[in-house]
Design brief:
With about 70 residues, the protein is an alpha+beta fold. The protein has one domain. A two-stranded antiparallel sheet has the order 1-2. Strand 1 and strand 2 form a beta hairpin. Helix 1 packs antiparallel against helix 2. It is globular. The two termini are about 30 Å apart.
């Protein structure tokens, strides 16, 4: 994996399929744990951000799959 800072708070990540799969899988597990947390809930902003990032990933992956099918 290679990470570069493109500009303030913007990064370019080069990852293998396995590395990306591991990161996304860990994010999905973290979201599930947060959604089912007993007691004190995580900050709603953190959950919303993670949901948005995973949604963006899923939409990007779907577009990439659609383009590949053409």
């Amino acid at each position: 994996m290679h990470i570069e800072r493109t500009r303030e708070n913007v990064f370019t990540v080069t990852a293998t399929g396995q590395e990306l799969s591991s990161l996304v899988g860990a994010a999905r597990m973290a979201l599930e744990v947060m959604q089912h947390a007993a007691g004190e809930r995580p900050p709603p902003e953190a959950m919303e951000l993670l949901e948005r990032v995973l949604g963006d990933f899923d939409r990007s992956r779907a577009r990439m799959t659609d383009v590949s099918a053409d």
